[in-house]
Amino acid sequence: MRAVTWQGIEKVSVQDVPDPILQQPTDAVIRVTSTAICGSDLHLYEVLGPFMTRGDVIGHEPMGIVEEVGSEVAHVQPGDRVVVPFTISCGSCTMCTQALPSQCETTQVTEYGSGAALLGYSKLYGQVPGGQAEYLRVPHADYGLMKVGSRLPDENYLFLSDILPTAWQAVVYAGVPTHRTLAVIGLGPVGQLSARIGRHLGARVLAIDPVPERREMAERHGIEVFDLAEDTVGEIRERTQGRGPDAVVDAVGMEAEGSPVAGLAQSLAGRLPDAVARPLMEHAGVDRLAALHTAIDLVRRGGTVSLSGVYGGAASPMPLLTMFDKQLQLRMGQCNVRTWTDDLPPLVEDPADPLGVGDLVTHRLSLEEAGVGYDIFQKKHDGCIKVVLDPTIAPAPTD
């Protein structure tokens, strides 16, 4: 089959790799019909190279049609249309039954002290082949696979794999709807959906992003938008009775702009030999913290900061004096996808499209064009906000 493979820092290649097969009686194999590029994939593309192996199949936002199931899989059968959550969880361990499947005790990657294994996401999370491919093996399929209807386009359902429940969890962790004003830092795909979910749940939403196309998209959904400038925090405070918003979602994470020293550390770590770079990533503070520091500064006293953006540095410095003095709450963590999936299908199937899932994808490319997709997504070229790869279509002709 054809699959997107990691080949080095800022280099992916679509190659022939072995077709997946059932390895356990709880497995299923699906034929992928759509698979998205996530902001977290850019961490593999740019930063987490020391934990990758050349040829790793990447990607963790797929959906498709079930082709084959193991003998212990009863929930789905060949022919079912399914979405694949990016976390690999058993559904029956203590963590899963406490609505924390991202901490699944069956699939935890204990070698690295990590939570549940993830599809297509480095040695840190199990090095399981990912979903930017024609076919995908799904472990623990009875719990993991989500059956969806056959009538609506893939893009109504695809984001249930990751970014929609990630955004939903971020807003719930932020305390909306109890908190009535919500700021969102970063209007990439998760930030866009976080802002729309906050508004859907009744909050006034203010959002910050330096990219005009991202601000324009958010404005279409009733979000108050701000450029990233020196006076932005002060302007938002003025619009919130001088206090700041009740809650802030940091939807940026470790690659925030405005952190030149940490940016240099990330670049160096990504290019050092693995034996040197891995300890650096595991023990040093290599996160760009500009977005997180902005969130802590912006939120009102007694407010909540919710982190949905991924951070990877083990010793990143935090402004604890400010956090303590402002009496802040911080909530964060890998998304517990299956915890939220009963809430979300009715919203994506609603003809009114209350979360605007029909207004998010800016580029739909063939699987063979994955390299182009990664490049424009990373560089924010051509108005790129969300890229979906389609293994079923031929690449566009070139001049």
UniProtKB/TrEMBL annotation:
Keywords: Metal-binding, Oxidoreductase, Zinc. Residues 25-142 form the Alcohol dehydrogenase-like N-terminal domain. Its cofactor is Zn(2+). Gene3D superfamilies: Medium-chain alcohol dehydrogenases, catalytic domain (3.90.180.10), NAD(P)-binding Rossmann-like Domain (3.40.50.720). Residues 189-255 form the Alcohol dehydrogenase-like C-terminal domain. It holds the Pfam family ADH_zinc_N. PANTHER family: DEHYDROGENASE, ZINC-CONTAINING, PUTATIVE (AFU_ORTHOLOGUE AFUA_2G02810)-RELATED, ZINC-TYPE ALCOHOL DEHYDROGENASE-LIKE. Belongs to the zinc-containing alcohol dehydrogenase family. This is Threonine dehydrogenase-like Zn-dependent dehydrogenase. It comes from Brachybacterium sacelli.
